What we know:
11-stranded mixed β-sheet; globular; single chain; two-stranded antiparallel sheet; binds hypoxanthine; alpha/beta
Amino acid sequence: MGLLAIIGGSGFQRLPGLQVVEVKPLDTPFGAISVPLVYGRLAGHWVLFLPRHGEGHRLPPHRINYRANLWALHVGGAQRVLGLAAVGGITARFGPRVFAVPDQVIDYTHGRDQSFHDDDAVAVTHVDFTDPYCPELRMDLLHACAVAGVAAIDDATYGVTQGPRLETAAEITRMERDGCDLVGMTGMPEAALARELGLCYASLAFVVNWAAGKGEGAITMTEIEGHLGFCAERSGPILAALAAGSGAP
Ligand code: HPA
């Protein structure tokens, strides 16, 4: 099955239930990772943990060094990578506190380092990205949600915006026309970089607010934090079930 890495997002500076065994600083050819890699045991199984926003949630989505993070997980031994994502809900099925395992992504970000193949010295490489998420890890994740007793929607298109500001109502209307169900800021280029490295990558998304113009009035941090706390707590058993389903401890 291969070593599982979990990339924590907002609400996941620590991983619930993780027994930390070793913390490894790692240099990469692409610069600094968000924090030293954490090796630990979750439900008795080895996992790697990397909170993408860094210590104290200091790195906004557009300043995360996605290349360094994915490279470090790769050389650190991960073969499967789960990205956690707090998102806004656009379409009716995706209200606050809903969990989803997205199956498609649309990238609206700009100015981020999108590829490891940036160097003139190597031949141009185009990876297939028709299905951006790893089907095996998606299945394992949906199974883990079922084991944990958390309902999760298994088809969702995740639109990734640049941030750090939230969107306008018109931008969300456009995204809905494009086919997006969810909006977040960190899903890309993370998924594409994982694919370039041959890592099996999937995302567990949980809705922490109605996207701009879809709820009542302005989006508040109080609202987001309330839903985030709830979702973070519910994620614990899902992650434990996923780790436990990973084969030999
Ligand atoms: N937009 C973008 N990113 C987000 C949102 C949102 O509404 N909620 C959580 N992350």
